[in-house]
Design goal:
The protein is mainly α. The protein has three domains: about 1-80; about 110-180 and about 275-295, Cytochrome Bc1 Complex, Chain D, domain 2 (Orthogonal Bundle); about 185-270, Cytochrome Bc1 Complex, Chain D, domain 2 (Orthogonal Bundle). It contains 13 helices and four strands. A two-stranded antiparallel sheet has the order 1-2. It has a two-stranded antiparallel sheet with strand order 3-4. The longest helix is centred in the N-terminal third of the chain and has 26 residues, at about 10-35. It starts with 7 loop residues before the first helix and ends in an 8-residue tail after the last helix. Component of the cbb3-type cytochrome c oxidase.
Length: about 300
């Protein structure tokens, strides 16, 4: 791996670039000085197809000057901009810097519009058509990769259109999640639960909490083992939003359901991460995105 982080490749790229420019300059000089002895009829003596003769005319002046200008331009460009390995150039230009400048310019231009939304409540922003159009684009650009373009999520990625919230569905909870991100961890519990059979019995008890298909005998045997889970999920299995512990009594399974899936989670644990967005989005953008996400599960006529 060290081959890709030392200075060799920087020097190599710079060397190849300079050698290429110098080679072009040398070729131009040699070509300009080379004189071809011509016959009395101003030809080089080369004949094709019996009657096609190559004339011994010099290269056009404009072509030579274009070549010279190209070489001079390349040298000035490499002096001003990065192109010689790790050399940053006199103007200190970079793709990252240009991107950040464009982002800051866009933020400044959009600030007056976002200021209006910031002064509104989340509920009112969710009713504003312009705000929701902006929120949808923010969602597509920053959230849809995991939660899907329809926000219905998938295995291990929460559905944002229902009323099931691991960390709470109030606007302030959603805003905190977007801003700071979330890290949820279900630690392995197999050693605490007991034998492999005990783990399977516990899995059936967990299934019984939501009236999912299960073996009632195994569920009765696994009930006593649920104490290993109650610290997070509660004795009633309804979860804890402060800890991000899922409600096990509904029919929503974030990581898959059935004996095999639950046994795997109990045995190996599970970790999920929602990355923080405060470095990518402004507070005003987060407010609009919060309203958009909140509105997905709080449309008119739906229960909060």
């Amino acid at each position: 791996m060290s081959d890709f982080v030392n200075n060799f490749w920087s020097v190599y790229v710079a060397g190849i670039t300079i050698v290429g420019i110098v080679a072009c300059l040398v070729l131009l000089i040699i070509t300009a000085r080379k004189k071809v002895v011509s016959d009395g009829d101003n030809t080089t003596g080369h004949v094709w197809d019996e009657d096609l003769r190559e004339l011994n005319n010099p290269m056009p002046r404009w072509w030579i000057w274009m070549f010279v200008i190209t070489i001079v331009f390349s040298l000035l460009y490499l002096l001003a901009y990065p192109g010689l390995g790790a050399y940053a150039g006199k103007m200190q230009w970079s793709q990252v810097g240009a991107y950040e400048a464009e982002v800051e310019k866009a933020k400044a231009e959009l600030e007056p519009m976002y200021a209006r939304f910031t002064a509104m409540s989340t509920e009112d922003v969710a009713k504003d058509g312009q705000a929701m159009a902006i929120g949808e684009r923010l969602f597509m650009n920053n959230c849809a990769q995991c939660h899907g373009s329809d926000a219905r999520g998938g295995k291990s990625f929460p559905n944002l259109t229902d009323a099931d919230w691991l960390h709470g569905g109030a606007p302030e909870n959603i805003k905190q999640t977007i801003t700071q991100g979330r890290m949820s961890m279900m630690p392995p519990q197999a050693e605490v639960v007991g034998t492999a059979e005990d783990v399977r019995n516990l899995a059936h008890y967990v299934l019984s909490l939501s009236n999912s298909p299960h073996d009632s005998l195994k569920a009765s045997l696994g009930k006593s083992k649920f104490t290993a889970c109650a610290a997070c999920h509660g004795m009633d299995g309804k979860g804890n939003t402060l800890l991000g512990a899922p409600n096990l009594t509904d029919d929503i399974w974030l990581h898959g359901w059935g004996e095999k899936a639950i046994v795997d989670i109990i045995t190996n644990g599970k970790m999920n991460e929602m990355p923080a967005q405060d470095k990518k989005l402004t507070p005003a953008q987060i407010d609009v995105l919060t309203a958009y996400v909140w509105g997905l599960s709080n449309k008119p006529g739906t229960a909060n």
